[in-house]
Amino acid sequence: MPAYTAGRSDPAIAAGAGHLAMYVYSTDGEPVGFVFETNIYDLDGTPLGRIVGCRVHRFDGTYVGEWFRDMVVRRPQGRPRIIPAVAAPPRRPPASTSYRLRAVVDYGYPDAFPLLRQGADEAWLHQAAAE
User: Fold this and answer.
1) Confidence (pLDDT) at 101
2) Which of 4, 5, 98, 102 could form a disulfide with 31 if both were Cys (CB 3.0 to 4.6 A apart)?
3) Contact at 8 Å (CB) between 95 and 42?
4) Which residues touch 117 (CB under 8 Å, ≥6 apart)?
5) Can you give the residue ranges of every domain in the chain?
6) DSSP-derived 3-state class of residue 107
7) pLDDT, position 58
8) So what's the pLDDT on residue 29?
9) Which class for 71: exposed (0-12), middle (13-18), buried (19 or more C-beta within 10 A)?
10) Across the strands, what pairs with 131?
C-alpha cells in the first residue's frame, strides 16, 4: 500500500475512481441517495434532481420539496415554483454501502424523495408552484 505525504490526495479519488458520499436519507432514517455538487443521485448513481438553495427540483424544473437535514421533504412553509429545465448530468459511480446509522427524528414532514424518481403527483407540483 503506497504512503501518501501531507498535501497529497489519494490518486484513485483524484482520478474520479471513488468519492466520499454525502447521503440523502428517507424520513425513516434509511440512506436513499447521495449528493454530488448540487445534484441528487439514487444509490446506484442515477441522477434524479438538484438542490437550488433549500428547494429540490427535478431536472425538468418541477418542484419536488425542500432540502432539510439531509432529507427531501414537503414542508408547508416551502415556496414551490417551477424553474427552467436543465440537462441531467451523467451517471456517477454507485455510492459505497451505507448502514442505517442515523437516529430517526419525526419532524412531521412527509418524505418527498420518491417524487424525484416517479414523476408522480405532477398535479400537486404544478398547482403548488402556481400559487
Assistant:
1) 62
2) 98
3) no
4) 42, 48
5) 15-96+107-130
6) coil
7) 94
8) 87
9) buried
10) none
pLDDT for 108 beyond 60: yes
Which grid coordinates belong to 71? 432529507
Alpha helices in 1-131 (DSSP H): 11-14, 113-118, 122-130
Question: If DSSP codes are grouped into helix, strand and coil, which group holds residue 47?
Answer: strand
Residue where the block lists cell 416517479: 118
pLDDT attached to residue 126: 53
What residues contact 104, with CB distance under 8 A and at least 6 apart?
A: 27, 28, 29
Instruction: At 119, give phi and psi (nearest 5°).
Output: 75, 15
Range from 7-11, 21-25, 63-67, 123-127 carrying the lowest mean pLDDT: 7-11
Tell me what pLDDT residue 120 has: 43
Q: The dihedral of CA 108, 113, 116, 119: what is its sign?
A: negative
Query: What is the average per-residue pLDDT within 42-61?
Result: 94
Distance CA 102, CA 85 (A): 33
CA dist., res. 20 & res. 8, Å (int)? 16
List, for residues 57-78, the tens digit of each pLDDT value. Answer: 999 999 999 999 999 999 887 6
Q: 121: which 3 cell numbers? A: 403527483
